[in-house]
Amino acid sequence: MTDFKIHHRDGDGVSIIELKGYLDAHTAPDLETAFQKLLNEKKYNVVVNCRDLSYISSAGLGVFMAYVEDIRKNMGDIKLTNMSSKVYNVFDLLGFPLLYEIFKDEQEAVSRFKEIKK
Amino acid sequence: MEAEKKHISKRILSRTESLVEVRKFVDGAARKFGFPEEDIANIILAVDEACTNIIKHAYQYAVDQEIEIIIFPSTRSFEIRIYDNGKSFDPSLIRPPELKDHLGHKRRGGLGVYLMKRLMDKVEYNFIPGKRNEVRLVKYRSDVSTVTRR
After folding, report:
1. pLDDT on residue B147
2. Residue of A22, A67, A93 lying closest to B115 (CB–CB)
3. What architecture does CATH give domain B8-149?
4. Contact, B139 vs B128, CB < 8 A?
5. B22, B108, B116, B119: best mutation site toward chain A, by most A Cβ within 10 Å?
6. Which of A21, A79, B45, B99 would staple A4 via disulfide (CB 3.0–4.6 Å)?
7. Domain boundaries defined on chain B
8. pLDDT > 50? residue B1
């Protein structure tokens, strides 16, 4: 069984998605479901905390790409935080830092949403 | 002439659940070979991408087909050959990903092939029509890779 978990919490007008374990072609549909749920609930300010994300393959990266446009159309964004260097390297190889804001810390990303709101 | 050590192999079913087994198998072999952590992580990801492509494109999500992975460690290099009997697909037709084109389009093809090429020193595809497809991935030991790569 693949070890992957998603935990969702809301606070300050921002939805925090915590990823844990292995995000691959088997588990990527779980992340799709989570993003779809956010869209359905009209929650467009999303921070994805990758602190406990051990592994990501292109199937997982594809989910971020598939949903970010819909979220941005609604004046929201997906911001990524707390990546290990191993996970960051994969994002970096595909040029993600040019298209996504990546923060060291979850709170920095939450604050960024608040700055934009002002 | 390079001394070839004994190869090791594993057969898995063409389902995404099998990717865990694939990663464990490759991790063990790459670790035994003595690669540093970064190379081990890169090799695991490249093999995961290759198997994912086979599951999606060659077998089109049929879950009961076979994928065979054979690892040939030698003095200088670590070669992984992956075989399937599914539909051949030519990765050279997949253009390098323009990330902006992917945004919002749920178009994900090409990312895996691109990653494999970035992560490994050599990626080769061989097709035997009507028989089987082969992907060969090669990683050289760090001390020889700079000489061999370009």
Report:
1. 47
2. A93
3. 2-Layer Sandwich (3.30)
4. no
5. B108
6. A21
7. 8-149
8. no
- Residue B13 CB-density burial (10 A; 0-12 exposed, 13-18 middle, 19+ buried): middle
Q: Is B107 exposed, middle or buried (0-12, 13-18, 19+ CB in 10 A)?
A: middle
Query: If you average pLDDT over residues B29-50, what whole number do you get?
Result: 97
The CA distance from A16 to the nearest CA of chain B, in Å, is 21
> In the predicted model, what is the mean pLDDT of residues B103-126?
82
Mean pLDDT over all residues of chain B?
86
A96 to chain B: closest CA residue? B99
Mean pLDDT of all residues in B54-74: 95
Show residues of chain A in contact with B118, CB under 8 Å.
Answer: 93
Domain count, chain A: 1
The two tokens of residue B144 are 């020889």
Q: Are B102 and A62 in contact (CB under 8 A)?
A: yes
